[in-house]
Write a structure and sequence with these properties.
CATH superfamily of the largest domain in chain B: HUPs
Structural class of chain B: alpha/beta
Order of helices and strands of chain A: EEHEEEEE
Radius of gyration of chain B: 24 Å
CATH topology of chain A: Ubiquitin-like (UB roll)
Number of helices of chain A: 1
Largest interface: A-B, 22 and 32 residues
Number of domains of chain A: 1
Radius of gyration of chain A: 13 Å
Number of helices of chain B: 14
Number of strands of chain B: 10
CATH architecture of chain A: Roll
Number of strands of chain A: 7
Strand content of chain B: 5-15%
Number of domains of chain B: 3
Shape of chain A: globular
CATH architecture of the largest domain in chain B: 3-Layer(aba) Sandwich
Helix content of chain A: 10-25%
Largest sheet of chain B: 6 strands, mixed
Distance between the termini of chain A: 33 Å
Strand content of chain A: 25-35%
CATH class of the largest domain in chain B: Alpha Beta
Oligomer: heterodimer
Strand order of the largest sheet of chain A: 2-1-7-5-6
CATH class of chain A: Alpha Beta
Distance between the termini of chain B: 69 Å
Chain lengths: 106, 360
């Protein structure tokens, strides 16, 4: 996938695992480019953006309120989001955000 | 802004907030604590004895993959001297097990543990796909669940294992406790928290991951790069359990210790002496534990083989009604309309009784 790097864009890697990829076109890794905005991109805003732009199936299995459904783990650059402020975390360019579902059969 | 690991003397940056303790710890300390806690659970509860042959119930999912990996690791690290092997059940659901069995085979190769796969076809003469063809999609999960429960025990017995371990984690146990409370199933409630369950003539089953949070199991698999398979069974929505599951996850979000607290409550509930619990005997047909004369699996199997798939699912009075209808059917064909109504009734009662006796 070719990445267009414009000065007013915000590149990010979003990954899905543990079955969450099934809701995103069955693709585990997405290189996304968010539109540049005045306010910083937070995980809260990213989740809303993913729901509108990348999610292909059953939003209720991914989103609950403004957050992800409990049982979906979120890691930013391999760090548990519970350590970095969860929804309020301000994303940096080229961050790697990973969503792992624990809700699928074990 | 890296956060430092809470462990004294460790200066690495934390990668995980532990749900059980709220500790913020680094990757190495997490591996160490997670493994040691499971080792402690095994030792404290006397789960294994040296020289035992241990069957690991393997589905290819996250829990059994982590369980197989950890048991192998602890067996080597602490010299348990166990003879481990993987045991998988193939329900015969097209597309569901095909891929997960591939994962189990990969576990076999990666962890160097022998693998035995037993199919429903081999064990019962029916694959789930064929059962669904026969019974439709309404009650098929009953069949699958009942057959699976026995399949592992039967498999472990065939392979002469001393013990069967399953990957049930803390979230699963808490979920089962809640389910049993919601169903009023006091008998199951009183035994679902045991780390080792045992019945007459059966191999002990144990759950080394009983106190391990699902979050940590998934994180462990992720950071150890363990390969597991995750998909939903194509036949199962399991609505009721689904609600309980999301309820529990919502609770965990607000108060992460909720899961371990529910287990603690479940373990310490005592059942009043005057509560009569059903006797657990053995099935007259197959010899497995059963609260009835004939176990549920044999009952369901009988129904399948006789082309009466509702047998064993509906309540007893409904079943009687169902048999009566079957009797009518038998009567109309050979006897035709020549029988008097009294004769027909008597004949029906006879058939009903013989059918009844063959099941009870």
């Amino acid at each position: 996938m070719s990445k267009i790097c414009l000065s007013n864009s915000f590149p990010l890697t979003v990954q899905f695992g543990g079955g969450a990829e099934l809701l995103f076109n069955n693709t585990k890794k997405h290189d996304v480019i968010l539109p540049q905005k005045e306010n910083p991109w937070t995980l809260r805003l990213l989740i809303a953006w993913l729901k509108e732009n990348l999610l292909t199936e059953k939003p209720e299995l991914f989103v609950q309120g403004e957050s992800v459904r409990p049982g979906i783990l979120v890691l930013v650059n391999d760090q548990d989001w519970e350590l970095i402020g969860e929804l309020d975390y301000e994303l940096k360019e080229n961050d790697n955000v990973l969503f792992i579902s624990t809700l699928h059969g074990g | 802004m890296p956060i430092q690991c809470n462990n004294i003397g460790c200066k690495k940056s934390a990668i995980l907030k532990r749900p059980k303790t709220s500790d913020k710890i680094c990757k190495e300390c997490f591996f160490q604590s997670f493994e040691t806690e499971i080792h402690d659970t095994i030792v404290k509860n006397n789960l294994f004895h040296p020289g035992e042959k241990v069957a690991i119930a393997a589905s290819g999912g996250k829990d059994s993959t982590v369980l197989a990996y950890i048991l192998k690791l602890l067996n080597d690290r602490y010299n348990y001297n166990l003879n481990l092997f993987l045991l998988s059940v193939d329900e015969g659901i097209t597309g569901y097990r095909d891929d997960s069995l591939e994962t189990v085979k990969k576990n076999r190769d990666d962890y160097d543990i022998p693998l035995k796969i037993l199919s429903y076809e081999e064990l019962y003469g029916w694959s789930m796909d064929n059962i669904v063809k026969q019974v439709g999609r309404k009650n098929n999960c009953t069949f699958c669940g009942v057959f699976r429960r026995q399949a592992l025990d039967r498999g472990a017995a065939i392979l002469e294992a001393d013990c069967l371990v399953t990957g049930h984690n803390a979230d699963d146990i808490a979920e089962t406790i809640l389910m049993n409370i919601l169903r009023g199933d006091i008998s199951r409630l009183s035994r679902c928290t045991s780390i080792i369950t045992m019945g007459e003539n059966s191999i002990p089953r144990c759950k080394p991951l009983k106190y391990a949070y699902e979050k940590e199991i998934v994180m462990y698999a992720y950071f150890k790069k363990l390969h597991y398979f995750s998909t939903e069974c194509i036949y199962s929505p399991e609505a009721y359990r689904g609600y309980v599951r999301s309820f529990l996850k919502n609770l965990e979000k607000i108060r992460p210790s909720a899961i371990i607290d529910i287990i603690y409550s479940g373990e310490n509930i005592s059942i009043r002496d005057d509560i009569v619990l059903p006797n657990r005997g053995i099935c007259k047909k197959c010899g497995f534990i059963s609260s009835q004369n004939i176990c549920k699996a044999c009952m369901l199997l009988e129904g399948l083989n006789r082309g009466l798939p509702k047998l064993g699912i509906s309540k007893r009075h409904k079943r009687c009604k169902f048999w009566l209808e079957q009797c009518k059917h038998i009567l109309i064909c050979p006897q035709g309309s020549k029988m008097t109504s009294l004769g027909r009734t008597q004949h029906m009662i006879q058939i009903k009784e013989s059918l009844f006796n063959s099941f009870l």
